[in-house]
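To whoever is covering the structure queue this week,

Two jobs came back overnight. Logging them here so there's a record in the thread.

Job A:
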Amino acid sequence: MKNTTDVFPHNVNEAHCAYPLEWLDLLITFTLDPAKNDLDLMTREQAQAICDRMPAEEARLLMAIKKQMFAVAEESSTRLITRRYHSALIILLDCCLANSSGSSAANPLLKMVFGSLISCIDSILSYLESHYYRYMPADLRVPATYLSVTRRELREKIRKLKAKAAAGGILQPLKDIIFKNLLRFADGAQLRHEITFQAVLYNKELVRRLGEIDWQSDEEGLFSQLNEVLWYMNFNSRSYMDFLLGYIRKKAKQAGSLKEEVKLLYFYSKASKQMHQSRGAILDPDYHGLGYVLQKWLASEIAYKEEKIRLEGLSPEPDAKKTAQAKAKDEMKVLCDLSSDQIGLIIRAADELRILVARSMTAVFRSIVPHLSSPHKETLSYDGMRSKSYVAEEKDKQKAIETLERMIKKIRDY
């Protein structure tokens, strides 16, 4: 086998290399192609040289990507760079996996080299997928080889996640739902449709976020750490939706009365509208999102229970309720056997003599008048009464004076 330095230089620089992936490309498509070279002739020194070079090459490529992304301003250019690198790396990954599955697959040196290569490519792909998620070709089908690598990595991460999520506890049914969905994707079981990049990126991000929460906390409720992650990722699994609705039903039954149930349902409706959700993220793009299903169900439950309350007479109808409140308010008023203008004169005099003290005359009228009624009017206007007290007629003045004199005489008789 040719020395690695015969195939590519050690100091490839993106400044004079129009194709930043040249080193990886030559290594995979020529040096490590079993159809072009006898890979079993590779020495330990050559294998070690390739593996030692890999971290520096990964760092160089990541820096080249960052520089190119930083140099462009338009989103279309960012999208083009992202998709170019992503598609080129997947092609190289496919080629690498094909080369590694040949008759030399049992060679420990080759296993080490191909393992290092796959790890390098996967790290760069992960960087693109995590930092430039929205520019990825989400609706494109994932190549079989790339999917195979992704699923293998996901299975390992899910295994670690399950070990982290202690078995048992009140959240065990929810844990079962999550891991059943994740493993179904990672194992490729019962998936009868083509896998798109959207599905791969979604499951990778979900596993990453689940790995960041405190699994030792067994907190219950729709707003636990676990539920917040699932809501943020729009985890619209049918089994998870059934779990959420079952939880709300259970809490509603514990409320004690229909009125309290309605209050609780309104609370869940408000709270779910305020939950954060990742833009564009969804487990099953062919089904309604979590928010839509939950809001529709809550609206239906609230309407049903409010109608039940009305029909059972547990709450008066709106118009009747208003009438009863108005009647009760009127019954609390004091009937004054004077006209509105005459009452106004007495209140004005009491204010100006500082018998009644408030911030202003308006405040005096506002405090007293709503609690009074006259023989001709049940509801008196405090503002109108105050205004009329400045332009009172003689007969109203005389009537007010006579009333006050009668009160004086009465007091003298005590």
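Job B:
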Amino acid sequence: MGTAETHDPPRESVGTPKQTPRANHPTARFRAQGVVFLVTVVAFAAGTFFLLALIFGLFFNAVTIHLTFFAFGLLAFLHGFTEYRNRLTVSGTATATANSAAIGLVELSGRGYAEHSSESPVTKKLCAYWKVEVRHRGKNDFRFLRAVWNRVMERSSGCPETYELEDDTGRVLVWARGAEMIPIKQVWRSNRDTDPPEGVLRLITTLGLEWPKRWARFPMMVTEERIEQGGPLYVMGTLAERRQIPEASSGRFAAFMARWAPSDPPQPQGESYAGVFNYARTLGVRWILKDFRSVVPVWCPPVLDLHQVLVWKGDQRRPFIISGVLERQALRALSTRAWLYLLGGAGLMAWMLWEFLDKLTGNMHW
């Protein structure tokens, strides 16, 4: 006969205290860490707000506003030289073909295509890119604002990431990031003698507006910019193999934000107040700068074979132009932009300098 096995209950060791479950209520140290976390986030947010308010109050006065607009005029004046340099480069560079273009700065001309095309709202043409604006002059309290065109509507198909330029010898891919665009531009105004096309009237009707008469006090203007699918495409840029183009980059400003406000801040280690403080500081800065991340895009080259060539902006400050018009019209547009920036910037600088000297001499006692 088998004997039944018996199991003795486990014996508690002598001198060992009995384990009791830990209470789920927060401890005083945990509460203190939460208070430090909350106070730190609020302090960083409030400190930044008051710092910006202080800078605004100290900076924007009668003197600094003139200096600020003078700086804007100087930047516009310098940009005018850049536009003029681009014009000289376009006029002095020979046009190459798709299958014979050499690595480096190239000028190509042919027909342009985009992967996704759509009809423009006014002219109803199949386009690789289009943008439409409706502007209307309205009543303003300030007299000098009555000549300003107020934007009523703006629509766009969105700039394609890449174009394909085709000529009689082949095709070349164009990566459009950072390009200076020169599209076909048409403008219709109600205070002109010509009647608007049917597309303009249809667009105005869909907005619930009415096209004004030619002698109306507050006219309306419709502008359409487009690059037609299969239409003329002029490109000047840097031809390179895909392997010569650096990988994804977000720029220096985005790198600065990533260092000071990372997307995934490290969790506080241990229970030290210093770790909780650093974690709260990172969250506060990230909350302040979260809106800036959306305006700093991360650029990634198109996925291609490493030995395939494409035209892009380059890294040597060369001109990069994508035009939906022929070279002669592109030269005319570059000349117009150059003179507008040069004369406008010089005029703004002269005006601000005159205002500054006038106020300076007015405060002097002779």
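Note for Job B: Confidence is low (pLDDT under 50) at residues 12-17, 19-24, 141-145.

Please reply-all if you pick these up so we don't duplicate work.
Q.
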